[in-house]
Fold Glutamine synthetase.
Amino acid sequence: MTRHKNLLTLEQLRVQITEGHVDTVVVAFTDMQGRLQGKRLHAAYFLDVVVEQGTEGCNYLLSVDVDMNTVDGYAMSSWEKGYGDMEFAMDFDTIRRLEHLPSTVMIQCDLVWLDHSPVVQSPRTILQAQVAKAAEAGYVALAGTELEFILFDTTYEQAWRDEYRGLPAANQYNVDYSIVGTTRVEPLLRDIRNTMYAAGMNVEGAKGECNFGQHEIGFLYDDVVVTADNHAVYKTVAKEIASQHGKALTFMAKYDEREGNSCHIHLSLRATDGGLAFWDGDGRSAVYDHFIAGILATMRDFTLLYAPNINSYKRFADGSFAPTAIAWGLDNRTCAVRLVGHGPSARLENRVPGGDANPYLALAAMLGGGLYGIEHGLELEPEQTGNAYTSGKPKVPTTLREAREAFHGSAIARAVLGDEVVDHYTNMADVELKAFDAAVTDWELKRGFERL
């Protein structure tokens, strides 16, 4: 893929800083939860010191919960190990302008230990490991993510004070493909689209979705790591721009009882020489079929990486356009895996991930599962025609606990991802389960306060 013209080189950034056009450099990595974490550096300090000497951050950043609490159970980071540093290894191919912020650029980072060995539990490193395996097998992976959000006519601060209940949606009815519905919020959508294009992303467009206030902004496919990088930046910037407009948006998988936020992921392979890997003559190649079979075979074991939170599993409901059956079909939206396109555009769509998925982990799971299918020559089961919800096919896990057990006990997951990765993200699930099990919910209070 061609590097986007709006991305900067280090030399271009150096000129921008010297001429006074840039005064702030954000260095950021993506954590376990898919959030950007890092620092804002003064531009002169960045040039004078950080370019050559680097910068660090506490290794607890890959071993905390959503509230940034230190928790037990992580081998890489603990009180016993002293919570030392990791180095933020800047990827100078990711320098991008953030035009919604004054004179600011961002650089995304890998995480390495102070001896420069990789932090294998880092989401970006996990995906890079699968990219390397694909390259060894003669393939390049391309992907696109389709990420939905729900927009509210309130600020994040007010939403917090309201405890996220009764928030006014930006649209009052189903606006799926509605031009009138998107026009209502076009000032925000346009701002996000243009800011993302200026930041080096190939923006396709925006459309309304089914839930009240639900929208999607689409981006063109790219190299899998570039797609994951862009996805992480987009989620952060979309929230920041919404805040600037006095609004709030959420990517959580299931905000209410209506349609959830999905993150359908499209993935294909090309040969390293640019040739087609998924197509042979007039139909699917054997490689494509093995790849699909691998994703299906690992779907239950890898669901934890597609649906990493308690809330993720509320989205899986029959007849909801979110999948429940582990099956594949040709342009069939009732299946977990939907095949679309032909020839150069042939690709599969994984419909399991939600808007809360970490893009690096979800793409690593898909790529790793597909390569497993190729390596082992897995045979593709017959196509699911008709309604997969009523097909009797095996189901995706219905709870985080069920997904955790499948992931932790999976010999395939350990072979594909490694023990360190499996144990690390099993503990992440354990932390969430422990927190949720201790929580008293509104549902319990409403049912039990007076009547029980």
